[in-house]
Specification:
Length: 258
C-alpha cells in the first residue's frame, strides 16, 4: 500500500512578485518527515504552482524550483520518496506554445536545483501538469498534440534516471485527462507515464453519490469505471467508448486553490 503525506503547508503570497504565490512549509520539515516515516509513510508530496497570466516572474520560477528541491532533499534524507509536483496552472487565454515555453523554464529550474541539492533522481517521482493551452484559450489542442508537446518537453528536460511520471489533471475534464494520457502512451518512452488524478477521478463519482446512502454502490461503480479507464490509458489501450456526459464536463475553476 502506498502511504504518503502532503508536506507543503499551503500557498501564500510571494512578496516582490507579480501577485504570485509560493508554498510554505520548509521550516521544521526534517522533523515532520522523520516522524511520518516512523509512522509508516514512505512517500511525500509537495505541490507548488506557477501562473502564466501573472508572468511568470523569474522570482516565482526560482522559488518553485528551490522549494521543491529543498523539500525533496529533506524527504530523501528521512527515507521518503518525494513526489515532486510543479504545476503550471490552466488559468489564462494563452496557447499551447506559451505553456510549453513556461513549462520548459520551470522544469529546467526544478532540475537545476534538484542537482544543486544532491537529490537522487532515481529516488523521486515527478507529478507535473500536461502541456495544454490555457483553459480560456480559443486555440484548443487534440490529445495527439498535447501528447506531442508534453513528451517533447519530457525528453528535453527530464533525466531518464527519473523512474516515473505521474501527471496531474489540473482542471481538465475526466475525458480530456484520460484521452491525453492515452495519447502519451501510444509509443515507447524512457519513463513509466501514469496518472495521479484527484478531480479527474472523483468528480463524476461525487456527483453520483451526492451524499446519499442509496447512491453509494452506484458511486463506487462509477469510480471503478474511471479508474479502469485511466488504467487502460497508461497502457495506451483506452478507446473513450461509452463515456458519460458528466465525464466530458470541464472542471476548470479560475483561481482554484486547495
Amino acid at each position: 500500500m502506498l502511504v504518503w503525506f502532503r508536506f507543503g503547508l499551503g500557498l501564500v503570497p510571494l512578496v516582490g512578485s507579480n501577485d504570485e504565490s509560493w508554498c510554505q512549509g520548509l521550516d521544521g520539515l526534517a522533523s515532520r518527515t522523520a516522524a511520518y516515516y516512523q509512522q509508516g509513510a514512505r512517500f511525500a508530496k509537495w505541490r507548488t504552482v506557477v501562473s502564466i497570466p501573472n508572468g511568470p516572474s523569474a522570482l516565482a520560477v526560482q522559488e518553485a524550483g528551490w522549494g521543491l528541491a529543498r523539500y525533496a532533499a529533506i524527504s530523501q534524507d528521512s527515507g521518503l520518496v518525494p513526489i515532486v509536483e510543479p504545476e503550471i496552472l490552466l488559468d489564462g487565454e494563452h496557447n499551447i506554445d506559451r505553456t510549453y515555453e513556461v513549462a520548459e523554464k520551470v522544469w529546467s529550474e526544478v532540475f537545476f536545483y534538484l542537482t544543486q541539492n544532491n537529490v537522487m533522481f532515481e529516488g523521486i517521482l515527478l507529478k507535473p501538469s500536461m502541456v495544454t493551452p490555457g483553459a480560456e484559450s480559443k486555440d484548443r489542442a487534440t490529445p495527439e498534440k498535447v501528447a506531442s508537446y508534453t513528451l517533447k518537453l519530457l525528453r528535453n528536460r527530464i533525466p531518464p534516471a527519473v523512474p516515473g511520471i505521474m501527471f496531474l489533471s489540473g482542471g481538465q475534464s475526466e475525458l480530456e485527462a484520460t484521452l491525453n494520457l492515452n495519447a502519451m502512451n501510444q509509443g515507447p518512452n524512457p519513463w513509466h507515464v501514469s496518472f495521479s488524478y484527484a478531480r479527474a477521478l472523483q468528480n463524476t463519482c461525487l456527483k453520483t453519490w451526492g451524499g446519499r446512502e442509496e447512491n453509494v454502490k452506484a458511486a463506487q461503480e462509477t469510480l471503478l469505471t474511471r479508474a479502469k479507464a485511466n488504467s487502460l490509458a497508461q497502457l495506451g489501450k483506452y478507446t473513450g467508448e461509452g463515456e458519460s456526459e458528466d465525464a466530458k464536463e470541464g472542471m476548470f475553476v479560475k483561481g482554484y486553490t486547495y
